What we know:
The protein is α/β, with parallel strands linked by helices. The chain has 15 helices and 15 strands. A seven-stranded parallel sheet has the order 3-2-1-4-5-6-7, sandwiched between helices. A six-stranded parallel sheet has the order 12-9-8-13-14-15, with helices on both faces. Strands 10-11 form a two-stranded antiparallel ribbon. Helix 5 runs parallel beside helix 6.
Amino acid sequence: MKYFLFNHVGSFNHGCEAIVRGTVNIISNADSSACFVLSSYAPETDAVIQDVEKRVFATRELTSFEKLISAFNVKARGSEEYALRKMYSGIVEQAQDCDICLSIGGDTYCYGDNQGIQVLTKELKKSGKKVVLWGASIGEEDLNEQKLQSLADFDAIFTRETLTYDLLKSKNANANIFFNPDPAFCMERDEIEAIAGFNKDNTLGLNVSPLVEGYNPRITQITKDFIKYILDNTTLKILLIPHVVEKGNNDYEYMLDFYNVFKDSGRLEILPDNLNAKQYKGYIANTRFFIGARTHATIAAYSSGVPTAVLGYSVKSRGLAKDLFGEELCVVNSRTLKSAYPVIEAFNTLLDKESEIKETLMQKIPLYLRNAMQMGDKLTKL
């Protein structure tokens, strides 16, 4: 079968890259004849992914006549659906030689109304395609009647943590709702030689993003205070690890300030912004502890057996930790942080429970990988 992967922002977001790579592994394991089309907002960033055909995800301009009809619909009905249907018609056409369409932006429904994706899903269904929401995370606060109607349009929804699964089941959001771990758990990592002096025994990996700083402007100072605490109270070295390097949303540019402030300590390094997801995962696997804001950076750490704390900002980070540990272990709400103390407390929990956390991950991750691979079997049965 031929699979159309859409709602992919590009591989400068290495979490999105990890989802594509993991998805290809999962489906290929269940369907030996599988081939893939990746519809990407930024296909120029996707050269690192070799196993898919790339197509440009681009809306088209409305004709003058369509603009008139659209203006009438907005004024008379308050609806932009007509305009969106026309704008996305090229994407629907892209998918016509494919059998199953996977919306791989799993947290799409967490951000705003996203009416465009809702309309696109409906149009793909109308064209006769099977359409699946893949690796979803959705919070109670994200739902409204319009989104629930859109969720019902999918042939199946695969949730990546049980908080979302339980929520959608309670809302009867769809007839086919499954829980399986995030596809990124199934992305392999490159074996990376550690930076000299920054080995697995003495390195704390740290990822902080401008996204969480946008939610909470205190994050910059909190991060500096946390770094100072680590330098003053431990012998650990700190490796700053970017995971999204998109224009205007660039972890590397954001964390470079932390590097410049503390580089004279000799205990801080920052990874470059030109690696791929498998390489970043390789470096993360070479850390003793990891603290991350980007969800898929923390998935890279969890799946590599690294004790991890999360600077969370949505249901996905809470759900992932709960499913792994039975509680939201070492998940700090980055939106409400006022000081570095909760981050320091989470780090000290990692330190105190290091052996216990490693043992839990050693037991759980193989099960996670097996359960994630089962997504392919469920999908092909559609």
